[in-house]
Amino acid sequence: MIYSGNLVQHQGRRIAIVVSRFNEIITEQLLKGAQSTLTMHGVQPENISVFWVPGAFEIPMVAKKLAATQAFDGIVTLGAVIKGDTAHYDLVINAAANGVANVSLTTDIPIVFGVVTTDTLEQAQHRAGAKAGNKGMEVTMSLLEVLSLYDEIATIG
Predict the structure, then answer these.
(1) Residue 105 lies inside a defined structural domain of this protein
(2) Domain count for the chain
(3) Predicted confidence (pLDDT) per residue in 92-140, tens digit
(4) Which of 91, 74, 80, 45 is nearest to 141 (CA)?
(5) pLDDT, tens digit, for every residue of 48-82?
(6) What is the pTM of this model?
(7) Which residues define the annotated binding site for 5-amino-6-(D-ribitylamino)uracil?
(8) CATH code of the domain covering residue 113
(9) Whole-angstrom Cα distance, residue 4 to residue 17?
(10) 90: part of which helix (H) or strand (E)?
(11) What positions does the entry give for 5-amino-6-(D-ribitylamino)uracil binding (predicted)?
């Protein structure tokens, strides 16, 4: 057998979105992309909960707390980290990426990583929908595919 997730309608799904307030000019656009993707695929607006955090570093801890509630079928994480002149950039993106991956692997809740990492504000704007697609939309589609695959896996055996 071959199994593959798809973008079937997802009525009844409960989705949490954890979004960084830092670089809000970018993260607001990522959030809009995620929300529109969810509603386009049948998730009711009342089943989408948005949790604002100060920055990308705080995303994993809030995602972990949300996963522990078991109130959500999946979690989207969104942020924007733009490189500065210090090593702080590397520390923040590594902590955020590793933290989200750890939470996703240690819970039964699929969590997708939508933190845009760029060298410039212009690059971040492109990835938030200006020229290079909307990464919030892209990672949310990945979440919906994984949820569909989880449903298929549950029927095995």
Answers:
(1) yes
(2) 1
(3) 999 999 999 999 999 989 999 999 999 999 999 998 986 768 999 999 9
(4) 74
(5) 999 999 999 999 999 999 999 999 999 999 999 99
(6) 0.94
(7) 22, 56-58, 80-82, 113
(8) 3.40.50.960
(9) 24
(10) helix 88-106
(11) 22, 56-58, 80-82, 113
Residue 116 burial (CB < 10 Å; 0-12/13-18/19+)? buried
Q: Which residues sit opposite 84 in a β-bridge?
A: none
Output Rg (C-alpha) for the chain, integer angstroms: 15
Whether 50 is in a domain gets the answer yes
Residues marked as catalytic = 88
Find the domain containing 130 and state its range.
Answer: 15-143
Residue 130 falls inside a structural domain? yes
Which residues make Cβ contacts (< 8 Å) with residue 14, sequence separation at least 6?
47, 49, 71, 72, 73
What is the identity of the amino acid at 84?
A: G
Q: Which position has the token pair 């969810």?
A: 38
Whole-angstrom CA distances from 59 to 7, 8, 66, 95 are 26, 28, 11, 9
Mark the binding-site residues, compressed into ranges: 22, 56-58, 80-82, 85-86, 113, 127
